[in-house]
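Model it.
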Amino acid sequence: MTPSELPFAGRRYHFSGVGGSGMSPLALLAASLGADVTGSDRNHDRGVALPIFQHLRSGGVRLVPQDGSAVHAGLDAVVYSTAVERANPDFRAAEDRHVTLVRRGSFLASIAAARRAVAVAGTSGKSTVTAMIAHLFVRAGLDPSFLGGGAAVGLPGSTPPGSLRLGASDWFVVETDESDGSVSEFAPAISVLTNLSRDHKEVEETARNFSRLLAQTREAVVIHVGDPPLQTVALPSGLRVIRAAVEGHGTWATPDLVARRVALSPTGVAFYVEGVRVTVPFPGRLTVENALHAVATGVAAGIPLERSAAALADFGGVCRRLERVGETGGIDVFDDFAHNPVKIAAALEALRPTGALWVYYQPHGYGPTRFFADALVETFRQGLRPGDHLLLAPIYDAGGTADRSIRSEDLVSRLDAPGVRAAVPPTREDAARWIAEARPGDRVVVMGARDDTLPLFARRLVEVLEAKTATADTESKPR
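Modeled.
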């Protein structure tokens, strides 16, 4: 992928909300392809020292205040994320100065249109599936470009922190975004549909956008026929369609590829496809589905099953997707992006330990919490067991004009899960002191989206538990 191949090379763009997991690799891509790129982010203005800011600077993105001062008539566009409200100073400045505003997903779709793109869509597992596909494409020698919503760990040739790779071939593996509807703007060579549930939008609206994506697909479609809501998505005629499912799951169509003889363990999964054994070093039933979708995409691209299986055996994972950030005193600590009921349920199932589960969950906004309130309560009620601990953080406040009438305390008061300790610690240090009570065999997980400081807190918990272990070891020594 070279600047001369893309029409926006040499142009000027400003990215508002540039520190976001989807925005940062896109800004880096534009800069890598010769564009003059500035970026603003409220966390940067607050002095939060996130690693992504240094990666952006190193990649040629100039960081500026999010006060509208970087928005001027000489810009080709202001690229913004769905997290940016219309009251944001950059947004207001663009409207006042008649500068074109472009959604992040639309900007990515315009880049992907010039490539042989693989567009991954779905309401759960997209980031992992996208990284898996990029990983096996690299291992198969296809040298793809890659842009994901999460940082792929150990992807050869990727740009730090791992959510972007520039390859020499025409292949471009990308994660789409259904939250703003831009998924319907992609016209890829291959589309991958992982699943469909009520998330940012109602199921019916997302299904219509998925149908538009498939109608614009040029070569092949990979679709999970073990996911009932995807039955409402219209399949195109005249294209190769690879239907995938896990053995034992109900299907709405006869699958072409089936994951059989599934084996789950606390450290990974294994299954067979067409007699080929596939192993992935990450736990959970969702991992099986994700890997099956990646293998099926490899088939659509002409990669032999044996080669895909060999690649997935050393897949490094994705940051904040069941990411094991540390272990001390027999206690594992994980960081996970889970933020809606489906993702949370999958994480709880995958992380179920022999001991207790300690969940620190930060709802990622007032609107989403109100949208999911009933389902969130039911998910925790069903997924937690006696002896588990649920610590709900105060709802993440991104500023703006949100209706703040719902609180995390409202969810806790409705939980009614016998034997589960649930509370809303006022600060993270209060939560850390509670979690310091964890014992060997327990697992701790930090869950939530949008707040880029959550990974820092997960690592802080490792330090707290290490200090506790060191203190216990010192006190146990004879004097």
